[in-house]
């Protein structure tokens, strides 16, 4: 370029497909997000306002985060927006202050971002199990899902116990590789959870 910057320095514009996917994602999540916020805010109007604010804040992440990180990130952004909203209400309504010291605000239920991360990991592992050879998958599932011993599997399938052990080893190696790749690819937003 003439002004001394290269094409690599120029901001990257979102691709049309990614932008369309992002808009579709936001539309899909709107109702669930509003429900999530209704449980955390005093009025329906507040929930709708914070939902809109959260969706607007998400625009800055559409290119910097992979699609699988959008949902957990959306709920983290929404949680932060709830805090910001509460601060704003606190500043405007100091006389209506109610102490939260007596309220039990800690939920033992998994947070939406934790649920999304778990669902993503299970989906990846399920896909990895489906990629195993049919016999390897059968041996692995008999052992892990039905709790059969190597000897019981060998008798059921008419193969040696050492062959059962080889199939289990192959499956564990394949699934471990998927697990490592998932951990390496997890976004910073997911790792902070």
Radius of gyration: 24 Å
**SSE-based structural type:** mainly alpha
Separation of the first and last Cα atoms: 42 Å
Number of strands: 0
Low-pLDDT sequence parts: 5-13, 187-193
- Can you give the helix content as a percent range? 55-70%
The main sheet comes to: none
Strand percentage lies at: under 5%
Mean pLDDT: 81
Order of helices and strands: HHHHHHHH
**Tally of separate helices:** 8
Overall 3D shape: elongated
Describe this structure in words.
The chain has 193 residues and is an all-alpha fold. 68% of the residues lie in helices and 0% in strands. The chain has helices spanning 16-38, 44-58, 67-92, 112-131, 134-144, 150-157, 161-185, 188-191. Helix 2 crosses helix 3. The two termini are 42 Å apart. The relative contact order is 0.08.
Quick summary:
The chain has 193 residues and is mainly alpha-helical.
Which structural traits does this protein have?
single chain; 8 helices; elongated; mainly alpha; 193 residues
What topology does this entry show?
Elements: H1 16-38, H2 44-58, H3 67-92, H4 112-131, H5 134-144, H6 150-157, H7 161-185, H8 188-191
Helix pairs in contact: 1-2, 1-3, 2-3, 3-4, 4-7, 5-7, 6-7
């Amino acid at each position: 370029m003439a002004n001394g910057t290269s094409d690599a320095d120029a901001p990257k514009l979102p691709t049309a497909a990614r932008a369309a996917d992002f808009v579709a994602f936001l539309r899909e999540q709107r109702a669930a997000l509003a429900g999530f916020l209704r449980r955390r805010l005093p009025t329906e109007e507040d929930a709708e306002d914070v939902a809109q604010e959260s969706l607007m804040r998400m625009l800055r992440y559409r290119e910097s985060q992979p699609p699988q990180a959008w949902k957990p990130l959306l709920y983290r952004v929404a949680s932060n927006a709830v805090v910001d909203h509460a601060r704003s209400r606190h500043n405007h309504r100091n006389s209506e202050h109610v102490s939260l010291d007596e309220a039990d605000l800690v939920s033992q239920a998994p947070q939406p971002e934790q649920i999304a991360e778990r669902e993503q990991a299970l989906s990846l592992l399920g896909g990895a199990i489906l990629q195993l050879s049919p016999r390897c998958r059968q041996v692995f599932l008999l052992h892990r899902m039905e709790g059969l011993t190597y000897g019981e599997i060998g008798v059921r399938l008419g193969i040696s116990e050492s062959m059962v052990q080889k199939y289990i080893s192959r499956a564990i190696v394949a699934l471990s590789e998927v697990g490592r790749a998932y951990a390496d690819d997890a976004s910073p937003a997911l790792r902070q959870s």
